[in-house]
Automatic annotation (TrEMBL), chain A:
SUPFAM superfamilies: CheY-like. InterPro entries: Bact_response_regulator, CheY-like_superfamily, Sig_transdc_resp-reg_receiver. GO terms for biological process: phosphorelay signal transduction system. This is Response regulator receiver domain-containing protein. The keyword Phosphoprotein applies. It comes from Marinomonas pollencensis. Keywords: Phosphoprotein.
UniProtKB/TrEMBL annotation, chain B:
SUPFAM superfamilies: CheC-like (SSF103039). GO terms for molecular function: hydrolase activity. InterPro entries: CheC-like_sf, CheZ_family_phosphatases. One of its GO terms (biological process) is chemotaxis. Keywords: Chemotaxis, Hydrolase. This is CheC inhibitor of MCP methylation. The lineage of its organism: Bacteria, Pseudomonadati, Pseudomonadota, Gammaproteobacteria, Oceanospirillales. It comes from Marinomonas pollencensis.
Length: 117, 209
């Protein structure tokens, strides 16, 4: 079955780079993009995905705030932060919430682990 | 000017930046797919007037930069600076090199620089934060184009006569692309009392270990 992924990042370049890296792992992935937490929630009102990869530092709400909201609205979706903010405190906060953590730039093996590839 | 920090504090700061920049270089190397060469970090304390002279003397005439404001145990702005003529090469690095098949317009170029700054500056700042076990909050990256003389106004929110700038400068280069840049931290030392205390506490913890 095709895995459906939503990339949430205010940087278009980051979404491009991540999308490209993911397709190198599995070219059949169904990848969608959202440029903000609000846009992601709006997208998920009508579309289901298996996994959301979320940037932390975004203009409206940060990635953990979005993940928190998604735990309530979409508990079954796997949530992972993909961020250059690699502070231990943030990593621990994410992991304690059940949110995965990948440092930017994302390594292919870490992305593959998220996809279960 | 070095009297703002003791010799041990000064050494510690240089070493911390060395490690932090090493982490950034590792990220850049991963993006570019090649080794990144780094200079030894240079740490200086400067008045505003001196800082402007130093920038004019040592930096290219036209710069493209990405700055990121940070606050916590020390507060200020970190910036990544490149010669403006080479900014397109950096965009290529961010977009995966020669196999990017899309069109690079001005908006995408700004986005690429912004994201490159986000990754490199955050990797460095987060590493300092992790070693000292203190949190730092970072704002969104901001891209700019400036001449060295105008750099201070880009990197300081307020210019006061008594402002002392702690300038940390590291040069890095990608050999095969003939591409180099500078990482600069500008903090107003007169408003960063907790920073010195954090360094002192860390040194004490090393002595106690």
């Amino acid at each position: 079955m095709t895995l459906r992924i939503l990339l949430v990042d205010d940087s278009k370049v980051s979404r491009l780079a991540l999308s490209k890296a993911l397709r190198k792992i599995d070219e059949t992935l169904d990848i969608s993009e959202a440029a903000s937490a609000d846009a992601a929630e709006q997208y998920l009102e009508t579309t289901t995905v298996d996994c959301v990869l979320i940037d932390y530092n975004m203009p409206d709400r940060n990635g953990l705030e979005l993940a928190e909201a998604l735990f309530l609205s979409h508990p079954a979706i796997k949530k992972t932060l993909v961020t250059a903010n690699i502070q231990d405190t943030l990593r621990e906060r994410a992991l304690s919430m059940g949110v995965g953590f990948i440092a930017k730039p994302a390594k292919p093996e870490e992305l593959a682990a998220v996809l279960g590839a | 000017m070095e009297a703002f920090l003791t010799d041990d504090e000064f050494d510690l700061m240089v070493e911390l930046v060395n490690i932090g920049v090493g982490k950034s270089a590792s990220a850049l190397s991963q993006l570019a797919g090649e080794e990144v060469l780094l200079s030894v970090p240079a740490l200086e304390f400067l008045t505003l007037a001196d800082a402007t002279s130093v920038f004019e003397e040592r930096l290219p005439a036209l710069l493209t930069g990405v700055s990121q404001e940070f606050s916590g145990f020390f507060s200020g702005k970190a910036a990544l600076l490149f010669p403006e003529s080479r900014s397109l090469d950096l965009v290529n690095v961010m977009l995966g090199g020669d196999d990017f098949d899309g069109e690079i317009d001005a908006e995408l170029e700004e986005e690429a620089l912004s994201e490159l700054g986000n990754i490199l500056l955050n990797n460095c700042l987060s590493t300092l934060s992790n070693i000292l076990n203190k949190s730092l909050a970072t704002q969104l990256p901001h891209t700019f184009h400036a001449k060295p003389a105008g750099l201070i106004s880009q990197l300081l929110s307020e210019e006061k006569d008594e402002t002392i700038i702690m300038l940390l400068k590291v040069d890095f280069s990608l050999k095969s692309r003939n591409l180099s840049g500078h990482l600069v931290f500008v903090i107003d030392f007169s408003e960063n009392g907790t920073f010195k205390k954090t360094l002192q506490d860390y040194l004490k913890s090393l002595e106690a270990a």
